[in-house]
Amino acid sequence: MATRIALVAGATGLVGQECLRLLARNAGVEEVRALVRRPLPTDLHAPGVRECIIDFDRLDGHPDWFQADWVFCALGTTLRQAGSRDAFRRVDFEYALGVAKAARAAGAKHFLLVSAAGADARSRIFYSRVKGELEEAVGQLGYPSLTIARPSLLLGDRSPPRLGEETGKRLAWLFPPRWRPVRASQVASALVRAAQADEPGVKILDNTALRGGQ
Fold first, then answer.
1. 50 near 32, Cβ under 8 Å?
2. CA 64 to CA 86: how far, in whole Å?
3. How many folded domains does the chain comprise?
4. Could you give the angle at which helices 126-139 and 96-105 cross, rounded to 10 degrees?
5. Considering only CA atoms, which of 26, 71, 19 is closest in space to residue 188?
């Protein structure tokens, strides 16, 4: 079996770090490149993991880093963390699209994107609109395989805990399947399975599918 090179953008986030761990343990993956703005935490270092510290405003500095078979993009922030709509869009749209463009130019064949439930380029909700615009923009880059995960509220170990996440855990049973919280590890597992399948075309993993149909 041919081994793969995987690139993970946003490798320190909830989904990104789960992808990193799964790929590092995958016998079919030769190298995992963690594309990050700051050094990886000690617990994310593992054999086969290559730390690639980069300025997302200057992706042209290391074109060889983007020569990968599978490209996982888990970049993202929140409006509160970003501080403004412009800053949010810079991370969730411009940086993510920049990674997709750089990897495609380097020959990547499969792009795996963490988007969001409700993503719609024509939505009146700013967050959902930006996510939808990114999906459409990446879809125009000509990737032979494009996998888009649309999770709802992400659950995982955060420090400090987020109030919205804690509330979501308690009220999860009230939500329809499309909107129930999903663990970051479930999203990562679904994305890695999709990478291994390497099916051509566009594949959407909605929240229900990410939760295993629950």
1. yes
2. 30
3. 1
4. 10
5. 19
Classify strands 145-149 and 201-205 as parallel, antiparallel or unpaired: parallel
Distance CA 147, CA 41 (A): 27
Domain containing 44: what range?
A: 4-207
Q: Is residue 214 part of a domain?
A: no
Residue 166 is assigned to a structural domain of this protein: yes
User: Tens digits of per-residue pLDDT, 21-36?
Assistant: 999 999 999 999 999 9
Residue 157's pLDDT band, with cuts at 50, 70 and 90, is: confident
Q: What's 93's domain CATH number? A: 3.40.50.720
Judge residue 83's burial from the number of C-beta atoms within 10 Å of its C-beta, 0-12 exposed, 13-18 middle, 19 or more buried.
Answer: exposed
Q: Do 109 and 72 meet the contact criterion of CB atoms below 8 Å apart?
A: no
Kindly state whether residue 175 falls inside one of the protein's structural domains: yes
CA distances from 213 to 3, 26, 180 (A): 30, 25, 11
Segment (H or E) for 202: strand 201-205
DSSP-assigned letter for residue 212 = T
What are the helix and strand counts (H, E) for the chain? 8, 9
In whole angstroms, what is the distance from residue 133 CA to residue 93 CA? 8
